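Q: I'm a student working through a structural biology exercise. My instructor gave each of us a protein and asked us to get a predicted structure, then write a short paragraph describing it. Mine is Large ribosomal subunit protein uL4. I'm not confident about reading structure output yet, so if you can add a plain explanation after the tokens, that would really help. Here is the sequence I was given:
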Amino acid sequence: MEVAVLDIKGKETGRKVTLSDSVFGVEPNEHAIYLDVKQYLANQRQGTHKAKERAEITGSTRKIKKQKGTGTARAGSIKSPIFKGGGRVFGPRPRNYSFKLNKGLKRLARKSALSQKAKNSEILVVDSLNFDSAKTKNFITLLQDLGIEGKKSLFVLGESNNNVYLSSRNLKAAEVVTSSELSTYKILNANNIVFLESSLEGIESNLSK
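A: Happy to help. First, here is the predicted structure for Large ribosomal subunit protein uL4. I'll explain a few features afterward.
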């Protein structure tokens, strides 16, 4: 499919780029998308949660009352989970939530997500993007010119640009990544994806394998 190339002011340059059908025109695989997003979210979890069990509680080890004659149930330890301040039964322990996915499946997931965005006309292509200094107002002006202010937007650069990244950092609804940092979750989390023309070649070469 063809997409018009815009300049930094949001005006058409008169040129068009052809998005590869092998990347932006595949039949979306929803299960691959689900697995890739699940892995991304799992990798964000620190897994440092911990609750003390009865063996880890500090407290007396003496038998708290005699075995018989109290009229209540037998009780041997103040650290028992049935008492206030006792250990927790089957509490959370530190663990690693990450899991492995095949590279082919992850590529299919990204292509599926990009194809959905292309089908919904949520992809923009800009010829170049560069700021003389890192200022948030420059990025806000860019969003206004592109007509995507107030929407979640993902800008994909061919290579890192510190001024562009720093200009977007204070904006909650905008994110800047390089083509190598593109993930299925980031694609789906954005309402619009803005590609720099220079980033398309790298994306298509990486995902069309």
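A: Here are two points you could use in your paragraph. The chain has seven helices and six strands. Residues 46 and 96 are 8 Å apart (CA to CA). It's a good idea to check both against the output above yourself.
Q: Great, thank you!
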